Amino acid sequence: GNVLKARTIAVLGSREVGKSSLITQFVGNRFVESYQPSVETTFRKVIRYKGHEVEAEIIDTAGQVEHSILSFTHVVGIHGYILVYSVTSKQSFEMVKIIRNKILNYSGRESVPIVLVGNKMDLHHQRQLTFEEGKNLASHWQCAWTEASAKNNDNIIRIFKLMINEMEKDINPNSKE
Ligand code: GDP
What we know:
Blueprint: E1 4-13, H1 19-28, E2 41-49, E3 52-60, H2 65-68, E4 80-86, H3 90-107, E5 114-119, H4 131-141, E6 144-147, H5 156-171
Parallel strand pairs: 1-3, 1-4, 4-5, 5-6
Antiparallel strand pairs: 2-3
The structure holds guanosine-5'-diphosphate.
């Protein structure tokens, strides 16, 4: 039968890449143009996927990553990471690489469950990163990846399904996919 599992997911990335927007879209099904929390916020949502029932605790790290860059508290008790860049910002792409290194350093592990997300895919004319650049980085990291638009609600549910998949693989390496 289904057992409700608790999983904690941290959403990390540069300021303004759309972390809060994608969480808000997923949890509350809305896009709030002006929503800008300045403190860390936690959201909860039960996700049902492939027979798994997961009570997800989703941490919006709210721009703390930028200067102090990730503390130990962003690693302890975290089951999975959503690393967000914006396809309109090369700088944000460099930032996810720095963040991943920090996570691996702090956790002392060679890999952790990660979903790499290229957000703002709706902004075609402002692209600084191709589809392939994101895809290649994910295959190099052997993690999941998708482009998304928090604004248009494109691929937002997919992000969290991929996250569940990655966390299950980590906890039960014999499971398929
Ligand atoms: P955060 O600092 O990473 O949490 O980013 P926010 O969620 O606050 O978003 C930063 C800005 O980008 C806001 O003005 C959002 O409205 C906008 N934004 C977020 N996601 C998207 C998206 O997918 N497409 C577009 N066009 N704008 C977005």
